[in-house]
Amino acid sequence: MQVSEVRLNLINTDNAVKAIGSFALDGAFAVRGVRVMEDKNGYNFVAFPSRAKADGTYEDLAFPLSKDLYAHITGAILDEYKVQVEKQAQEQNQAQEASQEATQTEGASEAKPTPKRGKGR
């Protein structure tokens, strides 16, 4: 089985969840509700969809049965997460540069006094 598509929405919060999304296997089976999370040591991992049981524990709803498939799916999701984070960082840098350029051009136009037209007396 191949991961044919990964969709992630980045979340900018201070909690452990960094992204929520879905993935598709062979373009035929989709799983929604996967989360990219950060552990206490700052490492990212993939949490598969789960639900809370009455006793307060969690039960996975969908998960790979083999270690190879688990590694393949989590690798694809974490790779897409890295791409999304880099893309967001580039967009933020471009926005900051654009605002700095706009500020500089406004400051330059204000610094030069405009010449007066007409006859001076």
TrEMBL record:
Residues 90-108 have a biased composition (Low complexity). Keywords: Cell cycle, Cell division, Septation. Pfam families: SpoVG. Residues 87-121 are annotated as: Disordered. One of its GO terms (biological process) is division septum assembly. This is Stage V sporulation protein G. It comes from Lachnobacterium bovis.
